[in-house]
Amino acid sequence: MKASAKLAFFALAAITVTVLAVLAGAGALYSGGEFEEISTIESSEAEILLFEDLSATQVLAYNDGNTKIILLDSGGSRLSEQSFDFHAVSVSFDGDFASFYYEDAEKLAVSRVLCENLNSEEFIFNIRLDALEFFTLHESGKLFFSYRDSPMELHSLSPEGLEDSFRLEAPISFLESRGANVYLYADELFCFEKGDFGKFLSEDFPETPFRFLSANHFITLEGVINRIENERTSPVFRCEIAPSEYIYHAISDTHVAYVSGSGEVSVAEISTGNTRIYQFNDKIMAISAKNAVVSRGSKLYITFYSSFSEVPPESEPGASSDLEDDTFPASLEVEGDYLFVPEKMTVKQLKDEFIKEEISVLSEEDAIVASGYLKTGFRAKGKSIVILGDTNSTGTINGSDIREAQHMLLGTSERGAVQFKAADVNRDGEITTSDLVLLSARIN
Question: Which helix (H) or strand (E) holds 442?
Fold first, then answer.
């Protein structure tokens, strides 16, 4: 069956990047915090599989030899613990259930655990794990999957061995079951209602999903969090850095939390973008919207952000405004009102270039940007930052930048002057097909 139906489910509203960027606001800094031991681990290579907030409890699962799962109360105290005789290769979470995937006698096995009491049921599928590219267990007990050697076909397999398939027009790059539905991305975003191949909805979607963060939120590879509501998908928040740079990320109804490798957790309020940044001296293993799990030696500890104290801002006596000093290090290229920086340069790396002074980086909405990648349109010392090729101000360069540059060439783009500057890849003062060729070559 060809995936050709186009129904109004994922009707993506035309919301500009500017609306999203205002949510990535400046953050107050917090440190300290109280830590409570929750488990002893046998090695420094322990791998966190899952850390999720439930209604009144939390669930933590990790590999440390075998797979272990711990149920915690709202205060972080351990309620119960379960150790399994397998080593999970991956896990999916669906609100009430956590599904652990592992290999059993060269067959794919799944242990589905009810998180509220850690009771589990086992599923064995007559299929080799190493033959699969994507796979997810539906609430019905069906396994949905794609093979490595046929990435344009979606298959389903029941525990009784009944199999069905669905032919797509592009390779599958995302597959996840959430609630009663199964979602996948293959150049379009599909939803199979109740896991039924005969009931699906699809619509064009510009970015590849990375994973679901809650029952109705998912994050894309570009770091945009989208909400599914009333059969519509709309972007609600753009994170400072893309998911591939995250250690973990989480979301509640009101907040999103994310952490980079710098030992800082950012917790932002979705409606306003107000952000608090929490500093850690320990290795961060997992986070939620309320707390974090860290490792110290051979032990895991949990801490609540509410136990941290705000760090007073440092005074800067005699500091001049960014506009008063237009001197820049020789390593940076300045042209008129523009500062050119390379792709994936971080805010910290830019600040480190200024050895003798402390500078601020501002978003296009004049909010202080504390961390993450620089983006076209940010400002520093009165100059607009330009990343050649970053025409849509995401900080990374991909196919969507080519599409935006095409709109600029055709005169149908509503971007500002700094984005047009980024589209002039060969810097000859105008946007031509030569810029599109250079941009395409840069991506490839």
Answer: helix 433-443
- Alpha helices in 111-229, H assignment, sequence order: none
Q: Is the pLDDT confidence value at 359 over 90?
A: no
Task: Count how many Cα atoms sit within 13 Å of the Cα of residue 342 in the half-sphere of its side chain.
Answer: 6
Interatomic CA distance for residues 315 and 307, integer angstroms? 25
pTM of the model: 0.64
With 0-12 / 13-18 / 19 or more C-beta atoms within 10 angstroms meaning exposed / middle / buried, residue 138 is buried
Strands (E), 230-386: 232-238, 249-251, 255-259, 264-269, 275-279, 283-287, 291-296, 299-304, 308-310, 333-335, 338-340, 361-362, 379-380, 383-386
**Which amino acid, one-letter code, is at 72?**
L
Q: All domains of the chain, ordered by start, with CATH?
A: 17-309 (2.130.10.10), 333-443 (1.10.1330.10)
Question: Longest C-alpha distance within the chain, in Å?
Answer: 75
Contact 413/404 with Cβ under 8 angstroms? yes
Residues 273-306 have pLDDT tens digits of 778 888 888 888 888 878 899 888 888 999 988 8
CB 362 within 8 A of CB 333: no
Q: Are 76 and 302 in contact (CB under 8 A)?
A: yes
Residues 6+ apart with CB under 8 A from 153: 146, 147, 165, 166, 167, 168
Count of alpha carbons within 13 Å of 34, Cβ hemisphere only? 5
Residue 386 has pLDDT above 90, yes or no: yes
CA distance 135 to 54: 24
Contact between residue 389 and residue 343 where contact means Cβ atoms under 8 Å apart: yes
Asked if 69 and 269 touch (Cβ cutoff 8 Å), the reply is no
Question: Which long-range CB contacts under 8 A does 39-43 form with residues at least 24 apart?
Answer: 39/68, 39/70, 39/78, 39/81, 39/299, 39/300, 40/298, 40/299, 40/300, 41/295, 41/298, 41/299, 41/300, 42/298, 43/298
To which residue do tokens 């501002």 refer?
A: 362
Q: How far apart are CA 211 and CA 176, in angstroms?
A: 8
The amino acid at residue 280 is F
Which stretches within 106-174 are classed as H helix?
Answer: none
Mean pLDDT over 386-411 rounds to 90
